[in-house]
Amino acid sequence: xxxxxxxxxxxxxxxxxxxxxxxxxxxxxxxxxxxxxxxxxxxxxxxxxxxxxxxxxxxxxxxxxxxxxxxxxxxxxxxxxxxxxxxxxxxxxxxxxxxxxxxxxxxxxxxxxxxxxxxxxxxxxxxxxxxxxxxxxxxxxxxxxxxxxxxxxxxxxxxxxxxxxxxxxxxxxxxxxxxxxxxxxxxxxxxxxxxxxxxxxxxxxxxxxxxxxxxxxxxxxxxxxxxxxxxxxxxxxxxxxxxxxxxxxxxxxxxxxxxxxxxxxxxxxxxxxxxxxxxxxxxxxxxxxxxxxxxxxxxxxxxxxxxxxxxxxxxxxxxxxxxxxxxxxxxxxxxxxxxxxxxxxxxxxxxxxxxxxxxxxxxxxxxxxxxxxxxxxxxxxxxxxxxxxxxxxxxxxxxxxxxxxxxxxxxxxxxxxxxxxxxxxxxxxxxxxxxxxxxxxxxxxxxxxxxxxxxxxxxxxxxxxxxxxxxxxxxxxxxxxxxxxxxxxxxxxxxxxxxxxxxxxxxxxxxxxxxxxxxxxxxxxxxxxxxxxxxxxxxxxxxxxxxxxxxxxxxxxxxxxxxxxxxxxxxxxxxxxxxxxxxxxxxxxxxxxxxxxxxxxxxxxxxxxxxxxxxxxxxxxxxxxxxxxxxxxxxxxxxxxxxxxxxxxxxxxxxxxxxxxxxxxx
Amino acid sequence: xxxxxxxxxxxxxxxxxxxxxxxxxxxxxxxxxxxxxxxxxxxxxxxxxxxxxxxxxxxxxxxxxxxxxxxxxxxxxxxxxxxxxxxxxxxxxxxxxxxxxxxxxxxxxxxxxxxxxxxxxxxxxxxxxxxxxxxxxxxx
Lengths: 666, 140
Known about the structure:
The complex is a heterodimer of chains A (666) and B (140).
Chain A lengths: L7 H25 L3 H21 L2 H18 L7 H24 L7 H14 L13 H10 L5 E9 L6 H15 E6 L13 E8 L3 H9 L4 E8 L2 H12 L9 H13 L6 H32 L3 H27 L1 E3 L1 H4 L2 H12 L3 E6 L4 E3 H22 L3 H6 L6 E10 L2 E8 L6 H10 L5 H6 L2 H5 L23 H10 L3 E7 L3 E9 L4 E9 L2 E6 L3 E8 L4 E3 L2 E6 L2 E7 H4 L11 E9 L2 E6 L2 E9 L13 E6 L5 E5 L1 H10 L1
Parallel strand pairs in A: 6-8, 13-22, 17-19
Antiparallel strand pairs in A: 1-3, 1-4, 2-3, 5-7, 8-9, 9-11, 10-11, 12-13, 12-20, 14-18, 15-16, 16-17, 18-19, 21-22
Helix pairs in contact in A: 1-2, 1-4, 2-3, 3-4, 3-5, 4-5, 6-9, 11-12, 14-15, 15-20
Chain B lengths: L5 E7 L2 E6 L3 E6 L13 E7 L2 E7 H4 L12 E7 L2 E7 L1 E7 L3 E2 L4 E2 L2 E2 L3 E7 L2 E6 L1 H4 L4
Parallel strand pairs in B: 2-13, 5-7
Antiparallel strand pairs in B: 1-2, 1-8, 3-6, 4-5, 6-7, 9-12, 10-11, 12-13
Enzyme class (chain A): transferase
Keywords (chain A): ATP-binding, Chemotaxis, Kinase, Nucleotide-binding, Phosphoprotein, Transferase, Two-component regulatory system
GO molecular function, one term (chain A): ATP binding
């Protein structure tokens, strides 16, 4: 083992890759039915893992993959069908392999007991092997069924014939060919899984035919059974009415992607040789250093402006300006590059979901097609890690509350199978992730009633909300539309947690829903958490940063424009009445004398809840490096972190979400 | 062993206290402290220590003494506590000392709970309360 320890990383990487490939393939098999190329890919994955696990001395992984490979080998030769029981069994095997994987990662020791799985795999083989099961006919192309139908006229019977040859039979393919000749004498053969003889003589021992015969079924059975080396022959009448359905089900198959697997492996090899593994903390350190540079560069820019003001046009000042500009560009690029290094494709996150959707849909007895798009969009790794829970919650919600049961869908005139789509695209400096279902949608009226009943909002206020605004009430704490708490999505984690999580990542979430047609959640996230664009504001002689991502707009208003409604100050912005809050009050700072005639207002908040924050002065926007306040201080209400300004002073970065909450609580 | 251990001795009001020197990162002059809105009351704010954000607490407040204007002698003792820097504001820093012998703390020392101290030492300035950092910095 000691000599092999240097390969463990490569092994684990391969293991991870192959397990993902197996899972993906299994889900595809389940969705689209088994295809030859799919089983072939599964076989290859199992085969690869068997080999490398043996080489690394992981006996259990080796044994399990060996048994799986064996079964897959039978399946690809048409001797076993890859039907639902086998899919389920394979999913259990996959879980077993993942447990082994986790154990290998943790301790290098395989603990998980694979005995039961091995037993089930063998049992399955034994039960299904001797005679090819009815499902062997699944491999028949649609034309075969059509031809059978066309020929099963004038008293000819459509039958399924299964023949298994004795184990002692030397040249099985030749014997099977003779059976074929016999069947053709008695009627028309629409299809058979008869294959060309394997060069190594390792032919399967059982064959099937689809035929329209001119004799009685038992006569055919008798004739074939009487042939040499034939151990068993079984004739079954074909139910052509169900064939129509079957044929249709298989019509989709040829459309499956015929990608050349050999090519994709070599592509993976190529890309692997061009990557370097780096410790995450080294990246963190690099990011911190870049952060320092960004601060210094901001300071330098300010000095440069100052010099220009004081000295006017001067050769040295010009040189400094040029230098400062160049530095700004270079540091900007450096920052971008380091950020890129920290980014991971969303694939790592999205790949978790298909399996979860499958299991959840089964539990809920819903039929769903799960579509994943934009796996290659990249995000900062810390964001990806924190995105798992909220997305899982949204997907579960969509399956549980969004998509209707198949019966209800049919009644509503929709296809029985619902569609759940998760996609990601890059947009400017953001990644937009959408979770979309074609389910029942959210009825605004129900949300209003529910919110009022739960005391989240006063009835009068609820009535004033437009539908699009009312729907957003589901994000309020204490809201949950499900009347019963279900195992799937009612674990006390409400939509408010989802929104809080997203906003903690400086992101936003919005709902777009049409009753009866579906619901779409749109999440916008910054590419990175470490550096944001901030608006520097002054409040009673102190400087604060408001993240630009939460600023809707900035206006200046005359003191005389401010009116009061119920004693609360408001301002009218394009027909919308927006309440004003002095940031001083939220931060418990003295307001002081108003020095200016015009009051700068920073408009923050979401559609249904806007707020104008009155500040003393606007000092412009700039890139700021977010620093945590540390665990000793922990969370301070209204503050999400701190940053060091160009002048070396520390400024607090304000968290508008909690300021909004604070205002709501008033 | 413990007899030879060195301590940083500092004063708050009329009292003198000491912290093991191994727990002190550095001692700096008073800085601009940025307050944290709605932060914990015992935290005065944060400072920029060469690019790091370091929280600063007032021992006066923690020990229930009235706040005092910063003077020339006011210092921030930056401690290394649980891999985090924490600054404490003290009225003055006296000296680095080691104590010949220390006595177990009484139940209460000048209105403070005795379990905030590991013991009482005697230096040239008189009695010195040796602080148990883990207790003093215990949140809340």
